[in-house]
Amino acid sequence: MMFLHFFVFIPFHSHFTIFCFPVLKAVESFGMCHTKWSEKYQKKMEDELKKANLPYRDLMHVSDNDLELRRKDHISHFILRLAYCQSENLRRWFLQQEADLFRYRFSQQLSGSVRKFLDLNDLHYTSILPNEKVELKTQLINSTFGMKELFDTQDFYKVPFTDALDLVRGRKIFLRHGLAYIPHNDLVSIVLNDFRTSLSRALAVTARGLPVIQEDERLQPLLKHLSYAYIGQDYSVQKNVGNISLDQLDSLATRSFPLCMRSLHYALRDQHHLRHGGRLQYGLFLKGLGLSLEQALTFWRTEFARGSIDPEKFEKGYAYNIRHAYGKEGKRTDYTPYSCMKIIQTNTPGPGDHHGCPFRHTDADLLRQRLQSHRLSSSEINQVMEYVKGMHYQLACQKYFEFTHKVEDGAFGLSHPNQYFEESQKLLSGGQHAKRENSGEVQKPVVAPVTMPQSSHPAQSSESQSTQLSASQVEEQELLEECFANGVVLRFVKGTVELG
Amino acid sequence: MKQQLQHYRKKTMADADFCSAQLQDLLPLYYKRFFPFGRFFKWLNYGGVKKNYFQRREFSFTLKDDIYVRYQSFQSANEMEKEVHKAIPYKMDIGAVFSHRPNQRHCVKPSAFQAQEKELVFDIDMTDYDDVRTCCKLADICANCWPLMTFAIRVIDRALREDFGFKHRLWVYSGRRGVHCWVCDETARELSQAARSSIAEYLSVIKGGEGSIKKVNLSDPVHPSIQESLKLMKNDFEDYALVKQDFLGNEKKREKVLALMPDDLRTDMRSDFSSLTNSVNCWDRLKSCTQAKRAPDKWRHVHEEVMLQFCYPRLDVNVSKGVNHLLKSPFCVHPKTGRVCVPIDLNKVEDFDPFNVPTISQLCWELDHLPEVVDAQAVQVTEEGQKRRRKDYKKTSLAAAIRVFDSFLEDLEASWRGRLLRESDLKNEF
Lengths: 500, 430
Ligand code: SF4
Ligand SMILES: [Zn+2]
What we know:
The complex is a heterodimer. Chain A starts with 15 loop residues before the first helix and ends in a 15-residue tail after the last helix. Chain A is built from 25 helices and three strands. Chain A has a three-stranded antiparallel beta sheet. In chain A, a hairpin with a 2-residue loop joins strand 2 (174-176) and strand 3. Chain A is mainly α. Chain B is α+β, with helices and mostly antiparallel strands. Chain B has 16 helices and eight strands. Chain B has helices at 2-15, 23-33, 37-45, 77-87, 147-163, 186-189, 193-202, 224-244, 251-258, 263-274, 279-291, 302-311, 317-321, 360-373, 375-383, 399-429; strands at 57-63, 67-72, 91-98, 115-117, 120-125, 169-173, 178-183, 327-328. In chain B, strands 1, 2, 3, 4 and 8 form a five-stranded antiparallel beta sheet that branches. Chain B has a three-stranded antiparallel beta sheet with strand order 5-7-6. In chain B, strand 6 and strand 7 (178-183) form a beta hairpin. At the A-B interface, helix 7, helix 9, strand 2 and helix 20 of A face helix 7 and helix 8 of B. The structure holds iron/sulfur cluster (SF4) and zinc ion (ZN). Chain A: Residues 1-26 form the signal peptide. Chain A: Residues 251-421 form the DNA primase large subunit C-terminal domain. Chain A: It comes from Eptatretus burgeri (Inshore hagfish). Chain A: It holds the Pfam family DNA_primase_lrg. Chain A: InterPro entries: DNA_primase_C, DNA_primase_lsu_euk, DNA_primase_lsu_euk/arc.
């Protein structure tokens, strides 16, 4: 291979890095406010992307202007990678939004473009033969919702089930002998699977190169700003240690805990035990509240002792995990309190579990009862349930916050149970403690304080490397990737991007 | 002769009742005479296809007084046997195959020491069924609820075999109140965490924690995999739920089932049930009502949903998800019950009776007494001289379990024999 010598010029205060903000942020908020992939959601996406003038729709005819726009898009994407590879929470957020965006755009491609895209990315799928299709007709129809009407016109592809994990997970396709039968309409899932895997790997690689890049002091604040502006604080740094005493917990639980933590707290008080998922979710939340390791150990030990687990058994079976969560054992990673998104999307509770988000994981009837017992009026309950029905769990929770705290429009975007707690405390203490509790960084609202640049080149969304088509584009990405992976220091100069 | 043996067994059980205080005395004997180290190595070495596969495997020991030792690893079956004799673990767990030998993990950078592969495992535990069994709670099991485990094995095993195409599945009694499954195909051992959790979720039909009452929601059309599961459960459901559990036998039990129905159906059924006397009648009534031609669409699957909620396997997804999750090894002795974690014969799942699984005390007792009763065999074995000690298990009630393990190993061996042959052919060409 030729020895390449390259510099990347990125205008420091330019719009570039900020370009991708609104788009990804919008992707998130659409996903929170509308049922994903519903008509309304698609419409919102379309409008947003139109505003951003993204040149990806037709891959068969690519103009020079398109290439230019794309190049900027790619750079934005890579800067965001840098900003979002820094912690697991950030990576998860970034992956999710990028994946949703990708899925939407893939679905908008014309069929010729899809084929070209698959070819260029070396994704070859062969469709099953007509006789196999006939033989499996019933199973294929029964495996996918709405397939009955589409069956005759659909091609099916056979791939190893490991290439279609999302479809397997949701039991959305027919599986036989380890092969998944994918209807043409669901091909996007497989491509997306690929996209996610490679982006996730790339983020991990980037993270490894990060220390070197962080030495550049011009870059550091920018990256930090970028990531905070997005998902709000991630509570990975423990503040206020020792501000809360254990005997305050009961009253705090009723007054200031979000519903998810409140139910965990009372389940624990009631049964003197919580299963693994509950211990993690609640334990990390308490850690975020400022409970010290010693306090946490005492808390769990005392409560478990009221049940069937004596201190000795506790020491052997549970203490390790708690120390672990505080980063004192094992890999010594300091675990971060779970965000709403993580609670809502991952680790669905099973029988015997109390964790999860009540707005997402509790039956409507039961949830109503509980809201009632927390003294919400029936019209208030209806308003909350309206959000639940529309699958806007965090908004439902926020409404609940407003009703229980007697405020109108809480004016913060709820994204984290610890944020819920802090906002509640701020209100209850009439703002007087607010300052002390938030010494350091003040909790930023989740809404990004960044406005869309009014430039002649409208904002771009970031896009994955797998959507690139021209050879030079691919190369550009690879170079950047390699550069990040090897921790090559980037040079930042005012100007435009140049490779060579 | 056979009768004599049967009779003898019964007597043994009574004479050799297990009490956990004996463990310390009996375990050394058990590890010496019974635990199949050779076969164990053969299993986990997987034909040596991958370099140092057995040597990079983590084992963990739980010693007396609950002392837990992780990251044990062994050079060979011999070394493992020696170490086990030395430590006499109360329990042994099998963990992942790591990038380096676990007992030498300090010699490499912590970040380089990574769990790489492990069998895909499933843990099904009777305590997860507490809200749907009426006979026992927590760690207790009885003949009336054990059929739940039979359902679980049948349903999960079918899906692993037919849907996912896995060939080498070892089902093991956990020694107390559940079963474990080890999927040992090479492709299964190499699965990523995401793939493992996808499989576990594909197999999970019961969703929702303490916050949800109705935990099964079927949508139309019902996925072929669930249809197959329903087929497997249909036959025995009536015997289990209606006879053994009598799950519609009184009002309290009925309310539990009624809670799973849509409102209009519930009202109808509640009044219908009150005039019926037993579970069988109630169930028939519900079925005929929901299957009636004029029944509304949302009633269509109610009786199947009830069946699933009461009988469908409940997996601990967390156990299956992690590559680095430890699971109790087969042929361990359960410290509380003394029962050996024996492999279960897939051809006779229905016949498996956890109360017939040999305990360590029973085995040791048999070892002392059996040769005198079964004379002919004793002579045969004596002629082989040296080998006699090694084959003790053949004369005891552990023999059947070892045979099940052997047939599992035989199939497994065929898989790597083919592969090694192919590879050596390739080498010969060059
Ligand atoms: S929305 Fe977030 S804070 Fe509210 S209950 Fe759900 S997980 Fe907890
Ligand atoms: Zn029972």
